[in-house]
Amino acid sequence: xxxxxxxxxxxxxxxxxxxxxxxxxxxxxxxxxxxxxxxxxxxxxxxxxxxxxxxxxxxxxxxxxxxxxxxxxxxxxxxxxxxxxxxxxxxxxxxxxxxxxxxxxxxxxxxxxxxxxxxxxxxxxxxxxxxxxxxxxxxxxxxxxxxxxxxxxxxxxxxxxxxxxxxxxxxxxxxxxxxxxxxxxxxxxxxxxxxxxxxxxxxxxxxxxxxxxxxxxxxxxxxxxxxxxxxxxxxxxxxxxxxxxxxxxxxxxxxxxxxxxxxxxxxxxxxxxxxxxxx
Length: 279
Known about the structure:
4-stranded mixed β-sheet; 5-stranded parallel β-sheet; 279 residues
């Protein structure tokens, strides 16, 4: 029951009638994933080996392909490379935890998200949702969903007073760095900000791969502003690129009696884009 309720959040995130190909020799796993995907009106085809999957790929164009790296008659990585070259397809390869790093790199080079066993059906669906959501950020015209009610009310930021209020008009307690990050996001709503952009703006230094300050700061802000920081509604992760703030904000620049007010409006390209959870 709990898992079914969690999966209900996919209703607006997997486009109806998406065509999905599952390729795995594990019959029980295929049945579980297939059942959950069909709950969300997806069209699901299953194959137990590479040859069957290749035949299906010749007769049907899929939106999502999920293949085990180790198939009875070949490699799942070779399959996703061969079955479709269209960049719009979402590719996933499931590998064993003991697999060589080189195998995982090959999966990434093939344009696939690499998932490690053991993986539950719920986790797999969550990764699908994240991948689709990232694609919506990069190609906003490809998807249409009604805007979420949660996004209608803006955050209100008073720069001079260093006060910030949530969409429910309640004051939010933030440290200086947290406030600066939220203001930076609000000034660049619906723009993908790299970790280097954030690091230079907040910490006045370039970002490097060993620097976790940006990710830790984003996590702290999420805990403050998100209704559920495990499934963020406002600050999204854009894979391999950075973060994007998808809310709206009113920014009061001064503490004067009649402060200048900047309203951060949703860009026209995102007016009909409803974005939900991303970790």
